[in-house]
Design brief:
single chain
Length: about 120
């Protein structure tokens, strides 16, 4: 599957990319902000099958990112990533249209399972 990773932490993007690629998937785009993610998504000729989206980011949070990407593609599959203690935000993200959520630090098998389901 084609994956887009959206996280303001370069290190976390690298960790997720490594897990995704070990799981046999391809990272087609990375972004550090919601605005960058939206621009990248619109410009990609072949859209990602899954977007991994951090909740806490500068300027706009991942929940706003979910809403903006769903406006572009209502069928988009977005998996939220959050640190412990952000359960309320996770629920808001699911209500906004996210399909699943992962708690950081992300377990590799849980990530692969979430992508493939």
């Amino acid at each position: 599957m084609k994956i887009m990773i959206v996280d303001d932490a370069i290190f976390m993007r690298a960790v997720l990319k490594n897990m995704v690629e070990k799981g046999g998937h391809t990272v087609v785009s990375e972004a550090g902000t919601v605005d960058e993610a939206v621009r990248n998504y619109k410009s990609l000729p072949k859209k990602p099958d899954v977007v991994l989206m951090d909740i806490t980011m500068p300027n706009k949070d991942g929940i706003e990112g979910v809403k903006e990407l769903i406006q572009i593609n209502p069928d988009i599959k977005i998996i939220m990533c959050s640190a412990m203690g952000q359960q309320g935000m996770v629920l808001d993200a699911i209500k906004a249209g996210a399909k699943d959520f992962l708690v950081k630090p992300v377990e590799e098998q849980r990530l692969i399972d979430a992508i493939t389901k």
